[in-house]
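Continuing the series of single-chain predictions for the mutant panel. This is the parent chain; the variants come on the following pages.
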Amino acid sequence: MSLQEMFCFPLGLLLGSVLLVASAPATLELPGCSNKEQQVTVSHTYKIDVPKSALVQMEADPQPLSDDGTSLLALGEAREEQNIIFRHNIRLQTPQKDCELATSVQDLLARVKKLEEEMMEMKKQCSAQRCCQGATDLRHHCSGHGTFSLETCSCHCQEGWEGTTCEQQACPGACSGHGRCVDGHCLCHEPYVGADCGYPPCPENCSGHGECVRGVCQCHEDFTSEDCSERRCPGDCSGHGFCDTGECYCEEGFAGLDCAQVVVPQGLQLLKSTEDSLLVSWEPSSQVDHYLLSYYPLGKEISGKQIQVPKEQHSYEILNLLPGTKYVVTLRNVKKEVSSSPQHLLATTDHAVLGTAWVTDETENSLDVEWENPSTEVDYYKLRYGPMTGQEVAEVTVPKSSDPKSRYDITGLHPGTEYKITVVPMRGELEGKPILLNGRTEIDSPTNVITDRVTENTATVSWDPVQAVIDKYVVRYTSADGDTEEMAVHKDESSTVLTGLKPGEAYKVYVWAERGNQGSKKADTNALTDIDSPQNLVTDRVTENMAIVSWDPVQATIDRYVVRYTSAEDGETREVPVEKEERSTVLTGLRPGVEYTVHVWAEKGAQESKKADTKAQTDIDSPKNLVTDEVTENMATVSWDPVQAAIDKYMVRYTSADGETREVPVGKEQSSTVLMGLRPGVEYTVHVWAQKGDQESKKADTKAQTEMDSPKNLMIDQVTENMATVSWDPVQAPIDKYVVRYASADGETREVPVGKEQSSTVLMGLRPGVEYTVHVWAQKGDRESKKADTKAQTELDPPRNLRPSAVTQSAGILTWTPPSAQIHGYILTYQFPDGTVKEMQLGREDQRFELQGLEQGATYPVSLVAFKGDRRSRNVSTTLSTVGARFPHPSDCSQVRQNNNAASGLYTIYLHGDASRPLQVYCDMDTDGGGWTVFQRRNTGQLDFFKRWRSYVEGFGDPRKEFWLGLDNLHNLTTGTPTRYEVRVDLQTANESAYAIYDFFQVASSKERYKLTVGKYRGTAGDALSYHNGWKFTTFDRDNDIALSNCALTHHGGWWYKNCHLANPNGRYGETKHSEGVNWEPWKGHEFSIPYVELKIRPRGYSSEPVLGRKKRTLGGMLRTF
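Parent structure:
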């Protein structure tokens, strides 16, 4: 039997004796809403009597609880061991000062009523003996922590209880596997927390910016992340970017603080318009999903249309529009369904256009134009026309024809000219789309064509030029036998020479003008050539009384030749005919030494050719008995017997053994002459002959030997204390050697030989301050020339070992070693810092001198010379620097400034502090603490900076005005030293100033073409010099840039050009042409020439505080004017 049957059967037998007791034994006072905390306890009990004979075993009831927690028993319950009691205990804890207790109690009573109804239903079921039939043990009655089910005869435990009779108190969620259950409470394992140990602790305790709920941080509004440590971005970047420390970094295509905005499209423009379409374009963007294009007629936004354009397109043609209508076109970028702000464009479609137009007739000065009328309404037309090479010069109004076509005849045009014609349809004052066409007038033909200056083979043809613009003229000429030639003549010519014509021939000549394939009408004339004359007329085999004359035959058909020869002396003439087949003839009966003129010409009927002529000169006799006498070093007399023939002159030629030749004429009456300009000791060959015109007699000859000459212009130079150079003009005669002898005043003599090729020698071993007599002569074999002599006075040797010693702040001692020469004394000179020079004369016994009253920390140049009478030795010098200056040899202007020189001006610095390498520079002691070494200045434009490479290497200009210090100096200043230099660029206009500073500046060596290196920029002028960083220097004659052309040549300067520049301080002063002036592009662009520029350097991190005080000095400030 089941438990239900065991339980329900005896229970059903006893239903008639059921006692129902309902009570509320411990109810506290409810009304009053007192401050005392209140509670309500409701007990609801069902009791069922069970006979002792039943098999169901009962346990003692648990005692009800009193208000103080003790158990209470209802009257009689303790004695009724065989009862089944169903008891519900409900305890309510009332809130302080809460007047809602009555409502809560009403709700509770409603629930109790529902429980009563459920128990009544149970009684009915048990009374029907459906449960507990045959049950023998009823002690397990859910322990008061559950509900017994008659259907299953088992307990359904309340939350928090478990077991078959609900006797065990349960832990929430079985402690989630992260703890152990003790008396219904979880003891959690670390680090878990919570009633059911179900949650780990929140990370970083939510960083103080949130609340921890079940192990998860609930962040405050402005924070996010698992531990609430990150600041939240506006709108969480709208899902279009990522957040970093509260700032949105937007995806491509989005913008704004919260990345909610799509980038606005750029560059919307109209490319083309027609009557019914608009072609628009914009700058492409890879950051969008697509574009949204909309358009509508102006003022009719309601009729607008919208088009989605793929992102790959960046243009779109809007079709099916109305002609002559103004449209508003709007473009938006779209990304992730978000549209950008629009960009607008206002564009108008074209008006209706005309049909086809054409030129129907062309003349030299008119064009007939015709066109089709359009289908749209037109009131009239405007017709404009003008030459293609110029602007439109005329406009006429043409009424619209009622015919399908309109026309107009344009007159008064220039021949051969192409005209641009425009026809514009008009509707009121509104112009429609024009139609364009071209027309060309015909070329006019040349006029007044004539031929003149006709020869045997040429003729000149000329004409009046045409009015039309042409490419050329064409001339064609045809002979009587049909030979034709054609030639082109430049359009600016109005005549030409016809060449290659045949003598004695008639020609027909045509002339016309051409332009392209267009030609004018032909004009014509006639030309008849002359008979040609004999050519290459020559005479040969001339003797004293005859000569042969020959010629080249003529081309023309002739009858004969005629030869005429005439004497030049008395005019005697003879004339002989020669057959047309002959080419030469013999002239006989000539007289010796006479010149004849010979003429030859051709004849045909009465027509004669031009006469060809030549000369024939009979031979003359030569001079006899030629002799030379009165020979000296450079002259000789030559004489002869005169010739018998009539002559013009004699010619005398004399030639030296080495081939030098001179030729002189001598009058025909003379029979001797003096040969001048001969060289001594040279043998000459002398020729004499007679001349008459170009005719010469045979030559007579003889020999002449000149005397040897002596050295001339003996000079002494390059005289020192122990040597001198003697030089002379070499002798003209061939010699073996020279001999030099020099003797001192006390008789000491030396003699030295000198090679014949030399004209100077050095006299060695001389004593200082001694006068010598020097002799020089030439020798050849045992022959000697005359002696030349001069005097030589050696220089005084200077003092030696000039040194300063015992130098204090205001004094110093100078010592020296005396010279070896005999002297009268010394002159000591020293210069003060202000430029004052003081000179002291000392005795010859003095070897030391003390300078007193000197300035502290100053440098004094000192020089010392020895003297004897008015003669001076060489100058020896040194410097004496008094104690006080931190840098006795400052290497730049910053060290000059630290030597307490506070005034801007010229100073001497020493490269790398080396006293042997002085350099004069201009120091800027005013700008930004001073200490700047200035290496470039432009302020007047008076100095041209467009110079060669060598000028920029060495430097040019005045450091007090406009100048360039030099690339070698810049290299030496900025390299080879541990000092790191910075560079400053000062720029000024009349009202503005700016500057740029780079924290590193260095110029490489000449081997590296003075490559520029600059560092980081700061300043107000903008960074232009970084563009030139790492580039070599370029001038117009040394191209080291990367541009296709020479940047220095095109930008008129020298600079570290790249391709080409952002800075051009050495450009053309005052030039406003793009990139050619004095430019600093970030400040004033490429088309403004800056009137004042100054470039300077100083050590990086320089401090202007001096170490030692001293008297200030200056060479003047710099007045900046422009």
